[in-house]
Amino acid sequence: MNCTVERIETNVVKLEITVPAEKFRDAIKKSYSKNVNRFNVPGFRKGKAPMAIIEKMYGESVFYEDAINIVCEETYPQAIKENNISPVDYPEIDIVEIGKEVDFKYTAKVVVKPEVKLGDYKNIEAKEIEYPVTEEDVEVQLNAMREKSARIINKEDGEVAEGDIAVIDFEGFIDGVAFEGGKGENYDLKIGSNTFIPGFEAQIIGAKIGETVDVDVTFPEDYHAEELKGKPALFKVTVKGIKVKELPALDDEFAKDASEFDTLEELKSDIRKKQEESNKARAKRDFEDEVVKKAVESSEVEIPEVMIEKEIEFMVRDLDYRLRYQGLTVEKYVELMGITMDTIKNDFKEVAANKVKTNLVLEAIAKAENITVSEEDVEKRAEEIANIYGSKDVEKVKETILRTERPIIEEELVNNKVIEFLVNNSKIVA
């Protein structure tokens, strides 16, 4: 095989690959073996007709298509490896010369990974951020613990108030006609949660158990149901019951029940300590992010559009994956939000472009500084991931991860080392 490489655009190269005629004839034979059963030739049992007879009946090129695929699938990867080319998309193949008695010649035009012009990444200046723990921070976590220990009790009398849970039956009408999806029974509505149409919850405040009230609202212009957008509606709402959340008192007894500590002060001290550790980790991440951001901003790279498009597609798949945990799909989400898939992709574009550039810059720094990871590092990370899955057969899961996700793990570990390098060579400023 012979290959010449020509750069025809900034991030596009064209390879002209010449394959000896003998190798192409071997590929034709493989194509014949693969496809012979497709042909019915008089005088021969199906699958037994000689190649020459089939070619005479259907033309010499009858086996060319698969032969071309066989040759290209073997020689193209070899050509990009030998010429240190890093494609970011599938190649565009064009046949230059073909035949049994001539060398097979084709071109492969492909978008390649762009070159990065690095800035001064060894002397980055960034501010060190501190996140002090306040009494309010401790109170927020204490209140969250109280919420978990709260009891829901029935309110025997009185009226619906802010913060109560009203148990309601309701039915909605537009121009006196009930509409689909506007009816519910024994629905628990937290007053103040703003989960219903704006203005709905406020009109229930003051109602007593057994009382029916008229609630007048107007559906928002951006409401997900097209037929209800901007429409005024009347809801008949009957209060079936009122529930209130009873929070435990903040005292030593609460600390004993909700934690391993005997006193409230010990519990507060532990919360503060853990929050300080969390804040330090957050400050460290923010400092790292700032250093990386400045390294990226000081670098120059012309990113091929296809790389951004692929990152956007990855982000859409990730969104779909997360939505499925909520019982939705990205298609259903688009429908409910009244937007299009193009809207989502456009919203993702800036983030995707920045992520691609960041990865390219980190990769270029790793190459410039000869930053690599060992096989031991990769296996250790694969084992950590396998343990996260909680499988009994950690070794088997680890092997699968190493087989299918090795490039992702290697990129993650190298990037982490590059970020550590950048931080170690940065300067903290006031």
TrEMBL record:
Q: Which residues cross the membrane?
A: none
Residue span(s) of domain PPIase FKBP-type: 163-223
- The organism's superkingdom is given as Bacteria
Q: Which reaction does it catalyse?
A: [protein]-peptidylproline (omega=180) = [protein]-peptidylproline (omega=0)
Q: Which residues form a coiled coil?
A: none
Which family does the record claim for this protein?
Belongs to the FKBP-type PPIase family. Tig subfamily.
**EC annotation?**
5.2.1.8
Name of this protein: Trigger factor
Main location, first listed in the record? cytoplasm
Give the organism, scientific name. Fervidicella metallireducens AeB
Protein task:
Involved in protein export. Acts as a chaperone by maintaining the newly synthesized protein in an open conformation. Functions as a peptidyl-prolyl cis-trans isomerase.
User: Which InterPro entries does this entry report, sorted A to Z?
Assistant: PPIase_dom_sf, PPIase_FKBP_dom, Trig_fac, Trigger_fac_C, Trigger_fac_C_sf, Trigger_fac_ribosome-bd_bac, Trigger_fac_ribosome-bd_sf, Trigger_fact/SurA_dom_sf
Q: What GO molecular functions are on record for this protein?
A: peptidyl-prolyl cis-trans isomerase activity; protein folding chaperone; ribosome binding
